[in-house]
Amino acid sequence: MEYSHFSHHHKLKIHQVTEGQTIRCSGCEKLCHSTVYACWQCNYFLHDHCASAARYIKKHPSDAQHPLVLIPKPTYCSGSFICNACGETGSSFSYCCVLCEIDLHVHCAFLPLRVSHKSHQHELKLYLGVINKKDEVPDEFCKICSKVLSLRNFCYYCLDCEFGVHTFCATNEVKPELYVVDDSVANTEATSSNTQAAAVNEPTAEEVIVELYNLQLQMQMAQGLAQMMASFNPSLS
Question: PANTHER family in the record, alphabetically (predicted)?
Answer without folding.
Answer: DC1 DOMAIN-CONTAINING PROTEIN, PHORBOL-ESTER/DAG-TYPE DOMAIN-CONTAINING PROTEIN
